[in-house]
Each structure stands twice: as C-alpha cells, then as structure tokens.
Amino acid sequence: MKEGRAFTDVFPESAVSVKPLPLNVLVRVFRESIEGEGAWSNGFVIEQSQELLLLQLINDRISLDGYQLLRQSDITDIEQPMPHHAFIEKALELREQQPVHPGIVNMSSMESALQSISQSSPLVTIHQESQEPDICWIGRVVSTSQGSLYLKCITPDARFEQDVDSYRIADISRVDFGGDYEQILWRVAQDGMQDAE
After folding, report:
1. Are 73 and 21 in the same domain?
2. What is the superkingdom listed in this entry's lineage (predicted)?
3. How far is CA 130 from CA 60, 84, 145, in A?
4. CATH number, domain at 14?
5. Nearest partner of 175 among 133, 131, 128, 130, judged by Cα
6. What is the DSSP string of 45-77?
7. Which of 54, 116, 174, 193 is most buried (most C-beta within 10 Å)?
C-alpha cells in the first residue's frame, strides 16, 4: 500500500488544533456521543481539516465502498492504525484496490464540502444524527444558501421526488457519497429517465 503525505504537508501544524493524521492510513473512528460505544467507521484517511475528516470506507466484504465525511467535533477517538490493518491492506492488494481521492473537496466547512462534492458525485447521503439518528436522506445537491442545503431526494425505487427539500447544514453530522448504493441508485435512476423519453 502506498504511503500518503503527512497531514502537515497539507495544513501547517501551527494552523491546526486537531490531531494530525497521515493520509492513506487505515483508521477506526469512534463517535460515541452520536453512535454509542459499539459503532465505528473503518477507512483510509483521505483528507483532514480543522472542521472535517474525509475517509474512504472499508465495508464488511473487505472492499472499498465510497467516502464518508465527518465533523471533527463529533469524533471521540481514533485508532491508528486500526485493528487487523495488515490483513485488510493485503486483501485490498489482492483485489487490486487502493485508496483514491474523490476529487476536489473543499474541507473548510460542511457547506463548502457539500458544494464541491456535488460537482463530482451525483448523489449524496446526509445524516442529521442528533435529530434523526435512524434516518438518512439521499439525493442530488441543488444548492446551498444561508446555512441550508437544498436536496432533490431520490426514493428507494430510484425515482426523484418532485419537490426540493431543505436541511439545516449545522445539523448535518455525516455525509456519505460515491458508495456502491449511491452509484447503483443513480444508474437505475438514469436508466429510468432514458426509458421515459
């Protein structure tokens, strides 16, 4: 597995208050105040700022499965390297998979990140876990304005809702994108649009 640049190569150490993490290193991230003690995220550190942490996720099948954007303020602990990291790295090597940056992600704020992610990812999954811990919303980012995200949601049947819904960005604690589910949902939606023409 390739070694990544150190976090301080991207952000000078004097400019950050979060613990610097090397890029492209496998970690296990805990957010106990939100998810409880028995839950975590496993993935490669792709990018980091004072506000946000971007991971490329490892799923239960030991395969890369999209990206997760988390707020630094919610993170209670990080194991680095994560347990069984050598096995996982070898498994990914045999699958010919390695961490890949998703493209430009403005990590200065959640709003900026959502704007930039929408340029390369047709669908995002947002979570407002403090308000609705068991619910997520998937859709296409229409715009952001005055602290709100405007999202055209998509149903589990890959049909876009007629209305555009708004979500308070300050309440968004997690964003997933580029995963298997978002990708196949988008492909089915696109196929349905072509059939309707």
Report:
1. yes
2. Bacteria
3. 25, 31, 22
4. 2.30.30
5. 128
6. EEEE-SSEEEEEEE-TTSSEEEEEEEEGGG--E
7. 54
111 and 73 housed in the same domain: no
Overall number of domains in the chain: 2
**Sole residue written with tokens 């640049």:** 5
d(C-alpha 151, C-alpha 140), whole Å: 6
- pTM for the complete prediction? 0.88
Question: Can you give the CATH number for the domain in which 152 is found?
Answer: 2.30.30.180
CA-CA distances (angstroms) from residue 81 to 27, 32, 84, 113, 184? 5, 19, 9, 26, 31
- How many whole angstroms separate alpha carbon 118 and alpha carbon 127? 16
pLDDT in tens, 112-170: 999 999 999 999 999 999 999 999 999 999 999 999 999 999 999 999 999 999 999 99
